[in-house]
Amino acid sequence: MRTLFIALMVMAISVSVVHAQSKALDRYLDEGLDNNLVLQEKNLSLQRALHAMQVAKSMYLPAVDLDVAYSHAKGGRSIDLPIGDLLNPVYNTLNALTQSQAFPQIGNETINFLPQNYYDAKIRTTMPLLNTDIGYNERIKAATVTLQENEVEIYKRELIKEIKNAYYKYLTAVQIKAVYNSSLSLAQEGLRVNQKLLDAGKGLPAYVIRANSEIAAVEAQLADAEKNIKNAALYFNMLLNREAGSAILEDDLLAQESVWSLAQWEDVDVSNREELKSLTTGIAIQESVVKMNKQYLIPKISGFFDLGSQAEGLKFNDNSRYFMVGLTMKMPIFQGNRNRLKIQEAKVDLAVSKNKKAQAEQQLAMAIEMARNEVLSSFKNFEKAKVQLETASSYQRLIQKGFAAGVNTYMETIDARSQYTTAKLSETVSKLQILMALASLERESATFQIVQ
C-alpha cells in the first residue's frame, strides 16, 4: 500500500521542474551556454561547416585566374633552316637584273625549339556547364551544416544536465557540511556537559574521552565536507568558464519537494532527440552519395575563355595579343568497374545508416524508461529516508531527555546522534538523487526548451 501511495503521489504532481527551477540556476544555465569552452568549439565547427557550404555553392560561378609564364632557354633541340642557300641565288639574279644591291645576302638560320626570353600572360575564365557532382556536393554540405547544428544542440543539452547536476552536488555538499556542523555542536555540548559532571564528581572520565574522540571524528568529516564543497565549486565554475574561486549563489532547490514531478514526461516522443535528427540527416547524405555515384556516365562539360599576350623579347603589340575560346568534356570510358563498386559501397553505407537509426530509436526509448524508473526509485528512497529521519529525530530527543534525567547513558546519546546524522545525510543525498534523476530524464527526453 505504501508503494502504491508513493506512485500515486508522484503521478499526481503536475508542476513542472523546468518552470519551477530557481532564477539563480536559470542564470547559471544561460552563463554556461554563453561561455562554455567546449560549446564555443562546437560553434566554431558549425561556422566552418557553413563556410564549406558557401564554397560548395560558389562552384556554380565562373572562376577567373591570371596565368603568367616566362621562360628563357639556350641550347636543346634545334632545326637548321637553309634559307640563305635557297634565297641568295634568287637575290643575286634580281640584283643583276636591277643593277642594284636592293636584295642583300642572308645567312642560313638555326631555330631552337626552346624559346628565348619568352612570356605568355593570360586571363582565363572557366565555368562549369554540366557537372552533376556540384549539385550533390552542395546538398551534402548543406546536410553537414544540419549535422553540426544538431551536434551543437546535443552538447547544449548535455551541458545543461551537467550544470544542473554540478549545481545540485554543490548545494548538497553545503547542506552536508551544515549537518556535520550541527553534529559538531551537539558533540561539543556533550563534552561540556560531561566535563561539568566530571568536575562535580558525578561523571566518568571515559565519557569525556569519548566526547573528545567524537569531536575529532566529526571534525575529520567536516574537513572532508569542505573538500567536497571546493571540488564541486571547481567543477561547476569550470563548466561555466569562470574563475575557479568565483562565488556560487546558494538556493533552496533541495527543499522544493512540491515541484518535483514526473507529469510532463508521461508521454515522450523520442523523435525530438537531436541524435535521431542527425541520423536522419546522415541517411539523406548517403542517399545523395548513391545518386551522385549513379550518374558517373553523365559527362562533365566546362567552358573557358582566354584573353592574353605571348611573344619573345617581352614584346606587347597587336601581333602578341590573342584570345581563345574552348570547351572541355570529361567522361569515363573504362575504369576497372570502380564506379559500379562505389555505388555498391554507398548502398551498404546507406543500409548501415538506416540500421544505426533503428538501433538508436530502441536505445533512446529504453534510456527514457530507465531514467523514468530511476526517478520513481529515487522518490521511494526519499520517502523512506524521511521516515528514517523522523524516527531518528524522535529517538534522539527521547534519549537526550533520558540522559538529562539520568535514565540513559552518554553512549546511548552518542548512538542516537549518530543515527540522526546518518538519517539526515541519507535524506539530503536522496534529494540530490531525485534532482539528478529528473535532470537525466529531462536530458533523455530532450524536453528542456533551449532559447536559440
Model description:
Residues 1-20 form the signal peptide. One of its GO terms (cellular component) is cell outer membrane. The chain is an alpha+beta fold. The protein folds into 2 domains: 2-72 and 131-297 and 335-445, Outer membrane efflux proteins (OEP) (Up-down Bundle); 81-114, no CATH class. Helices cover 65% and strands 12% of the residues. The protein is built from 10 helices and 6 strands; from the N terminus they run H-H-H-H-E-E-H-E-E-H-H-H-E-E-H-H. It has helices spanning 2-12, 17-20, 23-35, 37-58, 83-98, 132-199, 205-239, 274-294, 338-404, 410-445, and strands at 63-71, 78-81, 109-112, 118-130, 300-312, 321-330. The strands form 2 sheets. Strands 1-4-5-6 form a 4-stranded antiparallel sheet, with no helix packed on it. A two-stranded antiparallel ribbon has the order 2-3. Strand 5 and strand 6 (321-330) form a beta hairpin. The longest helix has 68 residues, at 132-199. It is elongated.
